[in-house]
């Protein structure tokens, strides 16, 4: 019990930081005079109050956090922050005289913070600008949270990413003695993230977006969130240059941020270009894009140039788990959206802001499977699995395997539950996959031109759970459910 | 090269045996006077000629077969026997003045020998009886082949089943010093199979089938093939008693045949009832059946008794990879058929006549995943994975993992190829799953009331490949594609 209290104290501190983040939409509201500024101080005050109370009341429970506390804290943060994030939304909707249920608001904030980017809000273009800033800013916060979670916090806590991280010995971490201390790693990743964010917002502005649109779409891009301030998503702009900017930054954000950090600090990029996961991610994204472009051309959906433009953009968008759309790709041959959604499960790198299983896990499993095939013929051949020159330990492979099984099981169970509510199979299964991978748009009723509004409250809760599980990399969450966790 | 010749010699011997099997429909054709008996001696003669030529021409290449030869032989057998099996079909269709393409004939014989049981032949009820006997008899031969392949041949050759087999140390094999020599094991399994076959044919006859119908449906039941001599499948009979007989024998055939062999020889069944895989198979099949029955009742599809009857029967039928149907379950809430098809991937035991991943692999992976979850919390806890008291070696887990990955990859690639032909997603994906698991009926256009006739030739070839890959347990086939295989 005292464990839980110690964790709650840290949560209180995070809540206070989160309250400060509400200053961003407040500033925009003042600047753009959208008429709902009082919403933000109220939300801030309430969040600060709750956080402060926790910190003060539990000040005696300050202690070193252990792995099991890490699992608890991370879960609490991803479940509870969206709760406080709904305050500005609910208050703003009240202010402008529209109705918004708690279920819808919580879905929206979870979708933002997990960088899923699905929306249940109709008529986005008519909302006060600061509301859209808040929605999209949640993605940026979530994206940063994921980076720190995946690269700095989780390995330190021995949770989820840890074994994977060891497996990545060939990556930059071991090579360059990247300090394992959380604060410094975190700072380095923030730095890269801030750099990308700045470059992205300037680039969007240069190709013609208004400053505030550039800001909001930068939030959606570098976090791979894909939540837009327009109902028509990026299709609102109808600009090829803008799509190109989005494309470049989605590609950048789908690689391991630690690679950039190390390359920048060392001043040379050899390690970066040699990273097997980075290579595989880019090959999967661009190769997949070209394949879909060829399909679109072969099936006469577009001429060759439009096929290339739309094919590559949407494959990269969906497979990086961003989910921007400029056309309704559900009108394409059905192989295309299915393929894109499949890719979203594996294409992004670990340590990126993307969702899914992550490419490094897939690479290791494929190499392992190849080794087994050799063993079928030469039963006594002993070769270790190698990635980028380094040996992957058995423990890492076991851990990845367990992750894959739990991941697959989660998608199947959530699909089944959605099917139980009589949703059609395409919508149900694609919604489950799109939620767990934090993509956003799926197929059928939840495709790129629709949104999640058509789902019932219960179905929305299932998707909300899916996004949270996906973001928590499932396994760490599952640990909470084991009896061993609660035993001392 | 001389390796291939040695394997071809053995193939020649098997072809000669296969020619003899054509005596069964020949006998039925004489007895029932269906007017097409000359078809069979011609087919037999041709098959004998080819087989005999191989044996005589390659008599100098007699040698001990090694693992790599096993992989080659097994692949050749499952690809080439269906080729010769098309002879009676093609000749019979010519005789009765109907048309049948080679693609359709080969699909049908592969479907039979792999015990998938899908059909592309319309108007089954109007075919000469011996043709239906030949179709359904192929399943019985295939079922026996699978048993011997899975339990006797593959482990000996160190292929596919081997590591799994070691993992099953708790099972009957190690316990009772079941002799590892192929011939004796094979005899024991044949004995059990023959016993079940005899009991099944008598039971079908007692509940009202004509002797020849009893024979054909016995072929379809104990092999878990599910191919009927009636367009309406088992629904033709509209008899609850008959469904009950089918249910019992499907359940019997979905457990490990070695368990029966050992129990019968020892005279007591303790080991049988304690086998963890057997328990899991029965719980999955009957538990799944009851769940679907509850769903059907809750959604007012049937009253409670009909829900139980149809729910349990069809879950067992699909999940054991049999594929009999008495109603069109695609009219049920869509969760039911999806759930049944999912179960078909995992429910049957290794060493049964069923398809899919097999329950023992699933059990081991789940136990492994549970161990990893404990390790998240207690990183230094070292506990081996256990199944039925025995420790599962790491090598076995790695092998299962590779199998699962290749299995999943196969289903995905085949689905994608079918989608590329503009088949709708439900039909495409379910056809891929139903083919690789050797179930037969899928969903959409290939559901229980439809058949595979609506597919194009190309789509049929994709499904044919799926059935072959599924039956060969994929991995052993994949070994053929590795360079290591062809290196000395
Ligand atoms: K997203
Ligand atoms: K079958």
From TrEMBL, chains A, B:
<protein>
    <recommendedName>
        <fullName>Trk system potassium uptake protein</fullName>
    </recommendedName>
</protein>
<dbReference type="InterPro" id="IPR003445">
    <property type="entry name" value="Cat_transpt"/>
</dbReference>
<keyword id="KW-1003">Cell membrane</keyword>
<feature type="transmembrane region" description="Helical">
    <location>
        <begin position="38"/>
        <end position="58"/>
    </location>
</feature>
<comment type="similarity">
    <text>Belongs to the TrkH potassium transport family.</text>
</comment>
<keyword id="KW-1133">Transmembrane helix</keyword>
<feature type="transmembrane region" description="Helical">
    <location>
        <begin position="240"/>
        <end position="262"/>
    </location>
</feature>
<dbReference type="Pfam" id="PF02386">
    <property type="entry name" value="TrkH"/>
</dbReference>
<feature type="transmembrane region" description="Helical">
    <location>
        <begin position="282"/>
        <end position="298"/>
    </location>
</feature>
<feature type="transmembrane region" description="Helical">
    <location>
        <begin position="396"/>
        <end position="420"/>
    </location>
</feature>
<feature type="transmembrane region" description="Helical">
    <location>
        <begin position="186"/>
        <end position="207"/>
    </location>
</feature>
<dbReference type="InterPro" id="IPR004772">
    <property type="entry name" value="TrkH"/>
</dbReference>
<feature type="transmembrane region" description="Helical">
    <location>
        <begin position="70"/>
        <end position="93"/>
    </location>
</feature>
<keyword id="KW-0472">Membrane</keyword>
<feature type="transmembrane region" description="Helical">
    <location>
        <begin position="458"/>
        <end position="486"/>
    </location>
</feature>
<comment type="function">
    <text>Low-affinity potassium transport system. Interacts with Trk system potassium uptake protein TrkA.</text>
</comment>
<keyword id="KW-0406">Ion transport</keyword>
<keyword id="KW-0633">Potassium transport</keyword>
<feature type="transmembrane region" description="Helical">
    <location>
        <begin position="137"/>
        <end position="165"/>
    </location>
</feature>
<feature type="transmembrane region" description="Helical">
    <location>
        <begin position="7"/>
        <end position="32"/>
    </location>
</feature>
<feature type="transmembrane region" description="Helical">
    <location>
        <begin position="334"/>
        <end position="357"/>
    </location>
</feature>
<keyword id="KW-0997">Cell inner membrane</keyword>
<keyword id="KW-0813">Transport</keyword>
<keyword id="KW-0630">Potassium</keyword>
<keyword id="KW-0812">Transmembrane</keyword>
């Amino acid at each position: 019990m005292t464990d839980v209290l110690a964790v709650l104290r840290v949560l209180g501190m995070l809540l206070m930081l989160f309250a400060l983040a509400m200053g961003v939409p407040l500033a925009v509201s003042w600047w753009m005079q959208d008429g709902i500024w009082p919403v933000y101080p109220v939300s801030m005050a309430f969040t600060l109050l709750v956080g402060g109370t926790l910190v003060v009341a539990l000040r005696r429970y300050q202690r070193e956090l252990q792995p099991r506390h890490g699992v608890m804290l991370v879960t609490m943060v991803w479940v509870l922050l969206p709760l406080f994030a709904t305050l500005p939304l609910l208050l703003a909707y009240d202010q402008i005289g529209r109705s918004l249920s708690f279920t819808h608001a919580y879905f929206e904030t979870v979708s933002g913070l997990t960088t899923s980017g699905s929306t249940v809000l109709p008529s986005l273009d008519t909302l006060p600008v600061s509301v859209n800033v808040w929605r999209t800013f949640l993605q940026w916060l979530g994206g940063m949270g994921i980076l720190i979670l995946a690269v700095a916090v989780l390995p330190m806590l021995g949770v989820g990413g840890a074994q994977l991280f060891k497996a990545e010995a060939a990556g930059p971490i071991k090579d360059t003695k990247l300090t394992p201390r959380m604060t410094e790693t975190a700072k380095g990743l923030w730095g890269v993230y801030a750099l990308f964010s700045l470059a992205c917002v300037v680039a969007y502005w240069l190709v013609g977006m208004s400053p505030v649109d550039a800001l909001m779409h930068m939030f959606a891009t570098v976090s791979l969130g894909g939540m837009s301030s327009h109902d028509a998503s990026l299709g609102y702009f109808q600009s090829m240059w803008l799509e190109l900017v989005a494309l470049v930054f989605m590609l950048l954000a789908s690689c391991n941020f630690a690679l950039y950090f190390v390359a920048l600090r060392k001043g040379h990029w050899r390690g970066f270009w040699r990273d097997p996961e980075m290579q595989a991610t880019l090959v999967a994204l661009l190769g997949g894009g070209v394949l879909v472009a060829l399909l679109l051309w072969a099936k006469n959906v577009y001429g060759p140039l439009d096929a290339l433009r739309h094919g590559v953009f949407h494959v990269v968008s969906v497979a990086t788990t961003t989910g921007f759309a400029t056309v309704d790709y559900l009108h394409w041959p059905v192989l295309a959206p299915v393929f894109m959604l499949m890719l979203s499960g594996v294409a992004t790198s670990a340590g990126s802001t993307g969702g899914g299983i992550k490419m490094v896990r897939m690479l290791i499993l494929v190499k392992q499977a190849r080794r087994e095939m050799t063993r079928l013929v030469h039963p006594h051949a002993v070769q270790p699995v190698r990635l980028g020159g380094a040996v992957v330990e058995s423990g890492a492979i076991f851990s990845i395997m367990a992750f894959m099984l739990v991941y697959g099981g989660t998608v199947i169970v959530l699909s089944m539950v959605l099917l139980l509510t009589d949703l059609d199979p395409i919508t149900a299964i694609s919604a489950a996959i799109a939620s767990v991978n934090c993509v956003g748009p799926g197929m059928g009723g939840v495709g790129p031109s629709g949104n999640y509004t058509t789902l019932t409250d219960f179905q929305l809760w299932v998707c909300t759970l899916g996004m949270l599980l996906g973001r928590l990399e499932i396994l760490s969450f599952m640990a909470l459910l084991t009896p061993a966790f609660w035993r001392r």
